[in-house]
Design a protein that fits this description.
Number of strands: 12
Strand content: 35-45%
Largest sheet: 8 strands, antiparallel
Radius of gyration: 21 Å
Helix content: 10-25%
CATH architecture of the largest domain: Beta Barrel
Structural class: mainly beta
């Protein structure tokens, strides 16, 4: 993932429970974001009906992503698709407040991050279409339609936790690349190296993070 300069910033999924990242092979051409807000006509007999706010519904997002292994001839399922499907595996034990039956495992909480846009939620479905095959029938190209729903922990509703938005996040997730420093990442994101260290529990700003680590970047605005 690129944090600045002339490089194209890649879209990626971040597993909030394990801290692992899944960078997409190609950026999506588009994605659909929907934030439902429920209104209901007020019951006023004899008068023109006014609208009464009921509640805001969780946001939903649908994004189509493409994976292609025609260059090396590898199976696109093992190279890419299965890694995406792992984000739907019920392998996480809920913490207090998430569910009444804590012994029932769930899939991970996932964030979709692309530039200043993010949505933290759960993956509701992954539809896979295989479109190209090798001579032996090995699938080489796949289009995956990922549907996500916004998720907010019960104890965060009053405090504004969780969420989604364009540039409205209080934090940003950045994956550290080879040759980068915390100071360079801080400058590219309008914050300070000390703020990044404090947000990530890093004592040494020089050697405290390694390439591949995901850093929480506090907003500099």
């Amino acid at each position: 993932m690129s944090t600045g300069g002339g490089n194209v910033e890649k879209a990626w999924f971040f597993n909030e429970d394990t801290g692992s990242c899944f960078d997409l092979q190609y950026n999506p051409k588009e994605f659909k974001f929907d934030k439902p807000v429920q209104w209901q006509p007020h019951d006023e007999q004899g008068n023109e009906s006014t609208l009464e706010f009921q509640k805001a519904q969780p946001a939903t997002m649908v994004v189509d992503v493409l994976f292609d292994t025609t260059a090396d001839g590898s199976d696109v399922r093992s190279s890419w698709v299965n890694k995406l499907l792992e984000l739907t595996n019920p392998e996480i034990t809920p913490t207090s407040g998430e569910a009444q039956e804590l012994e029932k495992q769930r899939p991970p909480i996932v964030s979709f991050v692309w530039g200043d846009f993010y949505l933290t939620g759960v993956i509701e479905s992954v539809g896979v279409t295989y479109m190209m095959f090798g001579a032996d029938g090995t699938p080489l190209r796949a289009r995956c339609s990922v549907k996500m729903k916004e998720w907010t922990p019960t104890n965060d509703y009053a405090g504004g936790g969780g969420g989604s938005g364009y540039g409205s996040a209080s934090v940003k997730l950045v994956q550290m690349q080879a040759g980068q420093t915390i100071t360079a990442i801080a400058i590219a994101n309008g914050t300070s190296a000390q703020a990044i260290c404090d947000a990530n529990g890093i004592d040494d700003p020089i050697d405290g993070a390694q390439p591949g680590d995901t850093l929480v970047i506090p907003s500099g605005r």
